[in-house]
Design a protein that fits this description.
With 270 residues, this protein is α/β, with parallel strands linked by helices. 36% of the residues lie in helices and 14% in strands. It contains 10 helices and 7 strands. Helix 4 links the parallel strand 5 (108-114) and strand 6 (161-166). The structure holds nicotinamide-adenine-dinucleotide.
């Protein structure tokens, strides 16, 4: 990581699992970071970073935090399936504040979208980025809304976005599904660097998964234009995890796995 962004970068969700990884890695690489989260930042502040607690629902503060920033890495919000009413505030209204801030600053948004935008596609298929959303819950629906918000701001205001449909970004894969969906922290970090430093990105979609042999679900996307390809892989875990399946026909049929099963009340499988 030699090149540095010309302007500071705002990172939301900085106190969360992925936010902490990115704050450390990008801070160590010399990026000037403005970190924010509704929760306190639990680590030592990286060099060149400042942190301010804020609620994504507070649009005035979000506008102020984004002042002078060239990019917003938007990782804050509800990150798991929750009741609809809990998701609306952070993931819909909060996202609107992020895009309004980006419009005002002429900043780029890198949006932590999710594989749960397409969770109800069957695992036997291979999707291209432009295939239809099939969210597997209110959380996935909020991420699809986020991508559509980004499209709107690109078409209407020229605000660029990279939508990263993150699979499973954990220290290591923990079940058979993640032999496909695992996304290493290092691959994520390298993608963030390309998403910010690539000169023009328009409105790009990238599947956030490492180079896993089992990843046959997610195909064509915009990674080549960003000059990014994953370097890590879950394959070394196959021996240990291949048998770690749920045994549930809904979970195993669809890409979204356990999220498809939450509240599932359909009687037939057809
Ligand atoms: N980790 C993964 O595998 C994965 C997969 C798909 C998508 N994502 C997305 O990546 C992002 C980060 O994921 P994570 O695993 O670090 O989740 P996380 O829950 O650890 O982090 C989310 C952060 O958002 C903050 N937040 C929640 N509501 C807020 C509000 N109203 N105002 C300000 N901050 C608020 C939380 O305090 C938390 O620190 C999320 O948007 C998530 O949906 C993650």
């Amino acid at each position: 990581m030699t090149d540095l962004p010309a302007k500071p970068v705002l990172l939301t969700g900085a106190s969360g699992a992925l936010g902490r990884v990115l704050a450390r890695a990008l801070g160590e690489a010399g990026w000037r970071l403005v970190l924010t989260d509704i929760a306190p930042f639990p680590d030592a502040l990286p060099p060149g970073a400042r942190f301010e607690r804020a609620d994504l629902e507070d649009g005035v503060t979000i506008l102020r935090l984004a002042e002078g920033c060239g990019a917003i890495l938007h990782f804050g919000g509800v990150s798991v399936e929750r009741p609809f009413e809990e998701i609306i505030g952070p993931n819909l209204r909060g996202l609107y504040h992020i895009y309004e801030a980006a419009r005002r600053e002429r900043a780029r948004v890198v949006f932590a979208s999710s594989n749960h935008t397409v969770g109800f596609h069957e695992r036997a298929t291979t999707l291209a980025a432009e295939d239809p959303f099939r969210p597997d819950g209110y959380y996935g629906l909020s991420k699809a809304y986020g991508e559509l918000m980004g499209r709107l701001y690109w078409m209407k205001h020229g605000v660029e976005s990279v939508f990263v449909r993150i699979g499973s970004s954990l220290p290591e894969p923990v079940n058979a599904r993640m032999l496909a969906s695992y996304f290493s922290f290092a691959d994520l970090t390298r993608l963030m660097v390309r998403a910010v430093l690539t000169e023009r990105v328009g409105a790009s979609v990238v599947w956030g998964a490492s180079a896993n042999q089992a990843m046959t679900w997610w195909g064509a996307d915009d990674r080549a234009a960003l000059g990014w390809a994953p370097a890590d892989s879950a394959d070394g875990f196959a021996g240990r995890l291949a048998g770690k399946v749920s045994g549930d026909p809904v979970e195993e049929r669809y890409m979204g796995g356990a999220y498809c099963r939450i509240g599932y009340s359909r009687e037939e499988m057809a």
